[in-house]
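Input/output pair, single chain:
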Amino acid sequence: MEPITWMEFWIVFGVCAITMLACRVLPLFVLKGRELPERVSEALGFIPSAAFAALVANDLLTPGMFDAGLWPAAAPLAAALVVVVVARLTKSLLWCGIAGVAAYALFMMI
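Output:
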């Protein structure tokens, strides 16, 4: 494998910089001062929840999760269920975190 040249580095760097500017900065200038339709604003409000759910699901559901047995795979899912219940009751991120860690620790001791 031959080493990358400085010219290739600057080409890749430039393409990455242009892409980043086009995807992150350009929409700010294009949409500045404009009112978005209500349905678009509502849809954009789901992005943080969807991103967080994707991160959590990636940790909870893995291809070989049942290789060690049923309970080692079910314990994180049970702790996640406890977090969902606490979230519905309290709507507090702090209590969700505390309940999730405590439930996971308790389930792993069983």
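The longest helix spans residues 6-31. The mean pLDDT is 91.
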